[in-house]
Amino acid sequence: MRYPSSLNLVVSLTTGLFALNMTAHAASFSVQSPDKQLTFTISDDHTQPKYQVAFQGQTIINPSSLGFDFARAPSMRDNMYISSTERASQNSTWQQPWGEAREVTDHHNELLVTFADKTAKATQYSVRIRVFDDGLGFRYEVNQDNARYITRELTEFSIKDSDKSQAWWIPARGWNRYEYTYNTTSLHEAAHVHTPFTFKNNQGVHMSIHEAALVDYAGMTLNQRRPGTFVSDLTPWSDGIAVKTNGQFKTPWRTLQVGDQATDLLNSHLILNLNEPNKLGDVSWVQPGKYTGIWWGMHIGNHTWGSGKKHGATTERTKTYLSFAAEHGFDGVLVEGWNVGWDGDWFFNGDVFSFTEAYPDFDINDIKTHADKVGARLIGHHETSGNVSNYRKQMNAAFKLYEQAGVTQVKTGYVADGGNIKRIDERGHARFEWHDGQFMVNEYLGNIKLAAKYKISINTHEPIKDTGLRRTYPNWLTREGARGQEFNAWGTPPNPPEHTPMLAFTRMLSGPMDFTPGIFDMGFNGLGDKTNRPQTTLAKQLALYVVLYSPVQMAADLPENYLARPDAFQFIKDVPTDWEHSIALAGEVGDYVVFARKERERGKYAGKDWYLGAITDADARTLIVELDFLSSGQRYEAQIYQDGDNANWQQNPYALEVKKQIVTHKDTLSLNLAASGGTAIRFKAL
Ligand code: NOJ
Ligand code: CA
């Protein structure tokens, strides 16, 4: 069987081998999605391997090149013809140990095409294509001794009707990694972009290019070399090579999600389906949940990471936070700044961080005793400031210390400008790498694998983008990889009102994000402050818990701000972080989005409640939502947290109305969202 996994239930599987006449030219093969809406065609016309894609009978990707250039081997560009093909298909379901949905359906048709060089017959590669109803993926499989140093991957995405298409994007290879506000432009203006790269054509077809299963390879960015033609631009090593291999490699899947409407992109499981099943075995120790932290206080300047009078991470404060967390049903407390190395400008302290030595006012044993007593956990933190060699030397000892302290989750951090990750090479020389090059792709995954040995789960900040590896390594819980809430603490500028409805259709297509919602005090610098404050209403902060999926969600604000608003705080206490089903009900990229999610059943606990989150950009709007997702024959108490009359993010962010009404699946709700507002609802099964 080709899909061995205890979790995979193979419903149907067919294969066939088709060997071609070696002299035949201009061969062309197609593979379609199970619903026949999406067609991928690959050919060797004029000995140039190319593919194209059609959706509902219309071309969406024009003929686009495939291939590689190598440093010490002939290119795989032209002179290639199709030498064999093989077909397979699959219709199965598998289960996520935690996630936005328990069950995932993997229904696809597969085509494996092998190209061989006409003159040097030894040169060849295969392209494996899988076409699903929600999109497709293709990857190269190469097995050729001299194909060791890839200088360029030649994969193109040549967008049909590019002059009439619109795109939403952040720039690639910049100093601030993935932490930019999104641009909304014509497709032609998207010069060099990160993936997921979301765009729509003039027919309203929404698409997103990304990659799945990025392992031991460089991250792919997209470079618009000619109008409408994006070329894969692999982030190189410091020595200029894109990817180093032993000649036998599979690239990550190059993915294209496609739908008639924007929400189709959100209801897709393509990226997860193209990753390999869980490799960690029993992962019952990986726990979703909610946390608070000694964190926001540092970002708004109340406390410091470094030692001194304003030191945030003291034993006393940690105990107080642990008691607060336990009392209000949170699982853990993140503590940043407890370990030696933060003094001075910590951005540049990568060489001196200790991952085991505490500041004198932080006693980890005393804290463990208190944590055990009250029933909440310490959540660990490892900030590297980009010096990964210093971290790697201490990583084992660092995880061991946390294991002894009862820590099961660690947040990591790689604060350094793009291209400035410091590593010490085999000869003792400092080299500076990108966060999304092959070296760091391996470094991040190495951290996950080592953490798993200590039964520790990881939340990576300043990460490599997500490509669905949580399926294979379920202890990789979540990550940052976009502008999070922290930008609202120190401006430069803060996240604009459209930022979160934009994230839903861009960054979030890659996987969970630790955005850290839940700021209740928007006016820590006064509401008139144009840069240092969240540009949202209070109700929108609540709705983010449902909209921006993460298996671990932070209640990011200070405890006193939650105690001051028990009405709103109740929603954060109630909302789960692990789901049975999720449905994107409505939305447009960067404008608004509505999600409904059903809480997950766990053991004897039959979760029956549904939750809804709706958010909008700077425009107030009314959204009509049909409740037909609710179970028929079940009555629910809808606990609605909505923007009050006259609420708006600028002058009146705090106006919140909490109301209750009985509903069934036959009802319709009209949601009134204020400017940069939102609605959060718990449908409590009665
Ligand atoms: C950046 C992270 O995103 C943030 O959450 C953290 O507090 C700082 N680095 C310090 O590690
Ligand atoms: Ca960050």
Overview of the structural elements:
This protein is an alpha+beta fold. It folds into three domains: 10-273, Beta-galactosidase, Chain A, domain 5, CATH 2.70.98; 277-481, TIM Barrel (Alpha-Beta Barrel); 516-527 and 537-686, TIM Barrel. The protein is built from twelve helices and 39 strands. Strands 1, 7, 8, 9, 10, 13, 14, 16, 17, 21 and 22 form an eleven-stranded antiparallel β-sheet that branches. Strand 27 and strand 28 form a beta hairpin. Helix 6 (388-404) runs parallel beside helix 7 (438-453). The two termini are 46 Å apart. Residues 1-24 have low confidence and may be disordered. Calcium ion (CA) binds next to loops.
Morphology call: globular
Please report which band the strand proportion falls in: under 5%, 5-15%, 15-25%, 25-35%, 35-45% or over 45%.
35-45%
Number of strands: 39
CATH class of the largest domain: Mainly Beta
Helix vs. strand class = alpha+beta
Instruction: Please report the distance between the alpha carbons of the first and last residues.
Output: 46 Å
Helical segment tally? 12
User: What is the helix fraction of residues, given as a range?
Assistant: 10-25%
- Average residue-wise pLDDT: 95
Give every kind of bound small molecule, once each.
1-deoxynojirimycin, calcium ion
Low-confidence stretches: 1-24
Roughly how many Å is the radius of gyration?
A: 25 Å
Largest sheet: 11 strands, antiparallel
Return the CATH topology of the largest domain.
Beta-galactosidase, Chain A, domain 5
The CATH architecture of the largest domain can be given as: Distorted Sandwich
Overall tally of domains: 3
